[in-house]
Design a protein that fits this description.
The protein is of the alpha/beta class. It contains six helices and eight strands, in the order E-H-E-H-E-H-E-H-E-H-E-E-E-H. The protein has a domain of 169 residues: Rossmann fold (3-Layer(aba) Sandwich). Helices cover 37% and strands 14% of the residues.
Length: 257
């Protein structure tokens, strides 16, 4: 008997929330969920792009809804998110790809960062990840439902940034980024440990460099950076990351080893 492996990844009758679902990574995740049969709820700050993307996907026959949502508005974060949960229901899959940042994000290097900027970026980025994931997990527990929580971290949440890759570019290392992404990984470990008994799986994705604009600068990546980063990949071989089936319906919980 031939096994239909693609069928095992179907998400029919599932609801997937994607925070930051219009970003470089988030949009592709949103497409994948929709193509797998899920009802996708995108929460993002890009209103015009969100409306156009929703219309495009719906015209193709996919179930996708865009809702304006700003993670940086921490004062009303819980209130605004719980309102969305009441209106659109609890997610079976919750993925956070958001990248909230202050206007001075490009000045968060060791030699230029201010205490206020560090504190603000941790609050709007790391703390919003923590609180949104907790709200979703507690709703899953309350409803006695299993589910999957996926949070976007980075290779630089696992290892220190190689400053050599920024030589002869306008890019620099970012203190806040490493602290935030490392925090997301340990948040994932702790949530996986705690919520596993409720059949809630919690995982982090830790990608390396992705071709696109430079966060905080809106510049294309420098050719020197691309060349130097490619050479630095050798040092990542010692990083062992679990490969998990993040869209599987099996109810297991894993943390990084």
């Amino acid at each position: 008997m031939m096994i239909n492996y693609l069928h095992k990844f179907r998400l029919d009758k599932k609801t997937a929330y994607v925070i930051g679902g219009l970003g470089l990574i988030g949009k592709e995740i949103s497409k994948a969920y929709a193509m797998a049969g899920a009802k996708v709820i995108i929460l993002d700050v890009k209103k015009k792009e969100g409306i156009l993307f929703e219309e495009k996907m719906q015209n193709l026959g996919y179930k996708l809804k865009y809702i304006y949502f700003d993670c940086s508005k921490t004062k009303n974060l819980e209130k605004n998110f719980l309102k969305i949960l009441r209106n659109y229901g609890k997610p079976n899959i919750f993925t956070n790809c958001s990248y909230p940042q202050t206007k001075d994000w490009s000045k968060n290097s060791f030699d230029k960062i201010t205490y206020n900027s560090l504190r603000k970026n941790i609050d709007i980025h790391l703390n919003s990840y923590i609180w949104l994931a907790k709200l979703v997990a507690e709703r899953m527990v309350k409803n006695k439902d299993s589910g999957s929580i996926i949070q976007l971290s980075s290779i630089y949440g696992l290892v220190g940034q190689d400053t050599n890759i920024y030589k002869n570019t306008k890019m620099k290392e970012n203190l806040s980024y490493s602290v935030i992404k490392g925090g997301i990984i340990n948040l994932t470990r702790q949530m996986a440990s705690y919520y596993g008994k409720f059949n809630i799986r919690v995982n982090s994705i830790c990608p390396g460099a992705i071709k696109g604009h430079v966060a905080g600068l809106q510049l294309k990546q420098d050719s020197n950076f691309i060349k130097q980063y490619s050479k630095s990949l050798q040092r990542f071989q010692d990083c062992i990351i679990n490969e998990n089936s993040i869209m599987s319906n099996k109810s297991y919980s894993w943390s990084f080893q």
